Amino acid sequence: MLLLDDGNLYERCMFFRDHGRKPGDPIYYNAEVTYKYMPFNVQAALGYAQFQRLDELISKKREIFQRYKDQLGNIKDIELNPEVDGVFNSVWTTALVFGKKHNLNKLDAITRLEKLGIPSRPFYYPLSSLPAYRGCEQRYRQLNQRAYDIAARGITLPSALNLSEDQIGVVCDGIKAILGLL
């Protein structure tokens, strides 16, 4: 807890609390490198309690992903989380990458889904593209062309553990609508 009488210092503290993100910046867009390692005691206790339910939580996440896959998997030129032989994907979140033929970037997709009342989030930006890593982008953009490409076209879909089958259906219908398939 901080007790401050300096507005500038307060804003700087909030900036660090938010992992180097400025208010109003896109989600997961860091302006500076900041650190926040240690959870509070209550956070640690909650984390431990969730760890005790890990199998149940992963099972639910995989079920949510499967519902998305069942409804969106046949759409040409989109990709969902890859499933690789010999790798167990916990499907922490359901990712969707729009193929280039759809001519749809992540921010346009998010805006169009939002107009339909459907929340989504952008893919993470490549670290070397963020202001916190100034001077790295030119070199690493060339070395990580696929990361930059996917980041521009990828979104994450709602995947809360309490998401119902009907809610997943609404999200899938929204995806189909913005692709002109409904």
Report strand %.
Answer: 5-15%
Low-pLDDT residue intervals, each spanning 5 or more residues:
none
Secondary-structure-derived class: alpha+beta
> Which of globular, elongated, flat, extended, rod-shaped describes the shape?
globular
Sequence of strands across the biggest β-sheet: 1-2-4-3
Q: How many strands, which pairing sense, and closed or not: the largest β-sheet? A: 4 strands, antiparallel
The overall pLDDT, averaged over residues, is: 91
Count of strand segments: 4
Named CATH architecture of one domain: Alpha-Beta Complex
Count of DSSP-assigned helices: 7
Concise description?
The chain has seven helices and four strands, in the order αααββαβααβα. It is of the alpha+beta class and 182 residues long.
Structure description:
The chain is α+β, with helices and mostly antiparallel strands. It has a domain at 56-178: Aspartate Aminotransferase, domain 1 (Alpha-Beta Complex). It has helices spanning 7-17, 41-52, 54-72, 106-115, 137-143, 145-153, 165-178; strands at 78-80, 94-98, 121-122, 154-157. It has a 4-stranded antiparallel sheet. Helix 3 (54-72) packs parallel to helix 7 (165-178). The longest helix is centred in the middle third of the chain and has 19 residues, at 54-72. The protein is globular. It starts with 6 loop residues before the first helix and ends with a helix.
